[in-house]
Predict the structure.
Amino acid sequence: MAQVTLDNLGKVYPGSRRHAPVRALDSLSLDAADGEYLVLVGPSGCGKTTALRLIAGLEDPTSGSIRIAGQAAESLSPAGRDVAMVFQSYSLYPHMTAYENMAFAPRLRGEPRRDIDARVREAARALGVEDALHRRPGQLSGGQCQRIALARCLVRRPRALLLDEPLSNLDAPLRAAARADLKALHRRDPTTTLHVTHDQGEAMALGDRVAVMSPARLEQAGTPMSLHREPASRFVAGFIGTPAMSFVEGRLERAGGLWFVESGEGGARLAIPAGHEGRFEGAVGPPVVLGFRARVPADGVPDAARMPLSFLVRTVEPLGDDAEVRGETGAGSPIVARVPAWEGVAPGRSLMVEVDPRAAHLFEPGPFGRRLTGGSP
Ligand code: ATP
């Protein structure tokens, strides 16, 4: 096992006569502790795969450095780094059976056959692909190939595991099962793992810590709950958690009590309840963005300690007991709310939601605005 440290890592893919150079990764500093399961999550193109390819030694960084178990990675060949990577494209040898694919690396290293056999069968059992061991990749489904590729890495027992969207080809029930399997496997054998995904639910379910990347930078790295409760920026707040946060632009004003006043004609006015003003009043004056997860009280009775906000319903997506309801305020701010008793909720009607001041945040304006104040008391 090994600690993996990235220090100001950058990668620019050189341009050509027809293409400009691409800055794929910009000064990424991040640390995966020995035995930690670290998930890198972010939108497509923010450089997640590039980071893994640099750690694996498949690309050379343009700037910065990587250390694996305290050793400078530049001094190690890709094989000498002893990291195993699961690619989005699986990269299984097509002429070998699943078993042979999984046993390939330890056989090359001359490890005892019986030991290899036990590890192959254990990994296959853990990932539910025992029945596929005698088949070649061409005779397997995409989901089975993905699990064989993952099992192959586990059999290698590397110092660190690099997983690039390892569950992306599984259907929803298999994906949920594979998440649970991965978590249990890691608990049993805590290999340092860097897992890349664009699915925030997967990140929250699996990560000891989650690193949220935006196209601009590493926004925040922390435990799933710290990202949820204390997002460092509007980008993190909008990316993490279900339902997503709603954001309303406006200003904090002091008029008797403290008020959040939405920008635009007909903007809502939310009174910050007494006892919560302290966390917000530092932001009185300049334009700010209020971020919150809108809720409707299950019993329909508004809570005096929360801020009521009404919006016009546009769409209702039933989820079962709850529904996800989207719409907009009178001044046009988009709102998404999780609604428990949603039978009477319909497009064209207005709905009252509550904003809990304890879980509301203020951000600087703009999509990457830093959190100013608010959050946990
Ligand atoms: P996704 O979730 O879609 O896989 P990602 O966050 O993993 O995205 P990367 O694959 O690391 O992103 O790509 C980052 C940027 O670098 C993208 O703009 C991509 O087009 C570019 N890029 C990646 N590989 C190369 C390459 N070999 N040559 C030129 N540009 C590249």
User: Anything to note?
Assistant: The chain has two domains: 4-231, 246-374. The mean pLDDT is 90. Residues 246-374 form a domain with the OB fold (Dihydrolipoamide Acetyltransferase, E2P) fold (CATH 2.40.50.140).
